[in-house]
UniProtKB/TrEMBL annotation:
It comes from Paenibacillus nasutitermitis. CDD domains: REC_YesN-like. This is Response regulator. InterPro entries: CheY-like_superfamily (IPR011006), Homeodomain-like_sf (IPR009057), HptR (IPR051552), HTH_AraC (IPR018060), Sig_transdc_resp-reg_receiver (IPR001789). GO terms for cellular component: cytoplasm. It comes from the Bacteria.
Length: 542
């Protein structure tokens, strides 16, 4: 049976384009329906019954984030792919936290990429269905709420707690003598595959391992285990110290590695004294985990100890001076200076510890600065290989600052190599052509800016390449041509020095005299006296 796909987007041109541009049936899918916003999508959900939902983020009436939340509450088996713009990465991260499987940037959508992503997402549908059939709901109806403590806790953490839930015996008993601490374990991203999820079977095993090991320390409830995270609730009668939580967390992370081979990072919330505080507790644990972005080397993060610096909100993490110095280093093709500048910028990001979205924005700003500077050196945008993400998509997906460091190191090395390879092919020809032009037009006014425009290079790169090929700077080379011609005229004509200065391109006679003496070691008058036509007399004193 084909996999049913539903599209939700408020732009009709997008819906028409996607529906008509893709061979759905030929690739094992069926375009089952569409909606213009989240409200319309929810109304059609049960009738269309999609396997995969493709949804935009920004829509009227109900946006994509609200839609994902509702779909995951009502129909958690539906897989979700987010359509986003390049400036919506903070929304994308929210969508992923709510359970979206993946995302694709609208600007980079083409049929092959979308089909590839749909196939990857579809590959996760069958195992999830098998798991659901192996563990049917207690009352036989998938939409009915279950009475287990685990489900009550999940609803509380998702902010979906109902009035009747507050009076359920399971919750009342748990909170009557205890406070709850949320332990949120997330799979550490594999730096090779850049994935941060595990198959459903492995996720279930991981959840049980963490629950059993936590039980050694304190009464524990496994609230949820998924491909991306495991949520435990630790029940304690008294407040617990950060040191004790860290000890528990290290034991859990160690057990996950030993028994499942899965690396996890664990975030702990503060104590929750009532069911209504669990949503806040989950957010605290998630916020604690976010600090892992800055690469402390730890695997355990305590909300009471961690914190992001919101004082940097609205403040650019890359100064204009940083940008100028970085662009100059690129123009000079100084790879060491480029890397040093990038390392300094990323080090400042780590020190500032801004909200993750702002740190990602700084990485995007850094990328766009580098990309623009490299393009000015004549390097075209590199074509993506099939199945390869565009650069900005990779950056949005950074989960660690060290991934940013590694990515930029590779990006710089790759582009410096491309520039140098291209310069070997065309640089010599461009410089030789410029030298020929200068020899023919030495008397005309020429600045570095004009020469750069003629060669279609940046001023910095032209200076670097010209000196590399000729051994001297461009203006110094031009002065050499002019002075050599002036010396020839001084030797072979009776033109006065001021006329010769004008003839070779100098409006200011005094400036001509200084340059001539710098190049030839003597004034024009003394030079001419030494080479009077037909004379072999020695240089007279002036």
């Amino acid at each position: 049976m084909p996999i049913k796909v539903m599209l939700v987007d408020d732009e009709i041109i997008v819906r028409i384009g996607m529906k008509s541009a893709i061979d759905w049936e030929g690739n094992g899918f069926r375009y089952a329906g569409e909606a213009g916003d989240g409200v319309e999508a929810l109304a059609l959900l049960d009738r269309i019954n999609p396997d995969i939902l493709l949804t935009d983020i920004k829509m009227p009436n109900m946006n994509g984030i609200e839609l994902i939340k509702e779909v995951k509450r009502k129909r958690p088996e539906i897989r979700i792919i987010v359509l986003s713009s390049h400036d919506e990465f903070d929304y994308v991260r929210s969508a992923m936290k709510l359970g979206a499987d993946d995302y694709i940037l609208k600007a980079s959508v083409d049929p092959d990429k979308l089909i590839h992503l749909l196939r990857e997402t579809a590959s996760r549908i069958e195992p999830a269905s098998e798991s659901a059939s192996a563990n049917p709901k207690e009352d036989g109806h998938t939409s009915s709420p279950r009475e287990t403590l685990e489900d009550l806790l999940c609803r509380c953490m998702e902010g979906e707690i109902r009035l009747e839930d507050m009076n359920r015996q399971a919750l009342l008993e748990s909170f009557s003598r205890h406070r709850a601490y949320i332990a949120l374990a997330r799979v550490t991203e594999d730096e090779t595959t850049q994935t941060a999820f595990v198959p459903p079977a492995a996720a279930a095993t991981l959840g049980h391992v963490l629950e059993l090991n936590a039980q050694k320390w304190v009464r524990t409830t496994l609230a949820r285990s998924s491909e991306r995270e495991v949520v435990l609730v630790l029940w304690l009668k008294d407040e617990i110290s950060a040191e004790r939580l860290r000890e528990i967390g290290k034991d859990l992370a160690s057990a996950a590695g030993r028994f499942t081979g899965i690396a996890v990072d664990i975030g702990f919330s503060g104590g929750c004294e009532s069911p209504g505080k669990l949503a806040e507790g989950y957010n605290e644990a998630a916020q604690a985990l976010e600090t892992s972005f800055f690469g402390t080397g730890e695997h355990v993060y305590i909300h009471a100890e961690q914190g992001l610096n919101n004082s940097s909100l609205g403040v650019s993490l890359i100064s204009r001076q940083d940008e100028k110095e970085l662009v100059l280093a690129v123009e000079q093709l100084d790879e060491e200076a480029i890397r040093h500048k990038i390392d300094g910028i990323l080090a400042n990001v780590k020190i500032a510890r801004p909200p993750i979205a702002q740190a990602i924005q700084a990485c995007l700003d850094l990328f766009y600065t580098l990309q623009t500077a490299f393009r000015k050196l004549g390097i075209p945008e590199e074509r993506q290989a099939e199945g390869e993400q565009p650069a900005y998509s990779e950056i949005i997906g950074f989960t660690r600052i060290r991934l940013a460091e590694q990515w930029f190191e590779h990006y710089v090395a790759q582009n410096v190599h491309r520039v140098r390879s291209a310069s070997r092919e065309r640089g010599r020809e461009e410089i030789l052509a410029l030298v020929t032009y200068m020899k023919d037009h030495y008397s005309e006014r020429m600045t570095l800016k004009q020469a750069a425009a003629r060669t279609m290079m940046s001023e910095g790169y032209l200076s670097f390449l010209f000196k590399k090929e000729t051994g001297t700077g461009l203006i110094e080379f031009l002065n050499g041509l002019r002075i050599d011609k002036a010396a020839e005229l001084l030797r072979n004509t009776h033109l006065p020095s001021y006329a010769i200065a004008e003839k070779v391109g100098y409006d200011n006679f005094n400036y001509f005299g200084r340059i001539f003496k710098k190049v030839k070691g003597m004034s024009p008058k003394r030079y001419r006296a030494n080479f009077i036509i037909g004379s072999t007399t020695s240089i007279p004193s002036e």
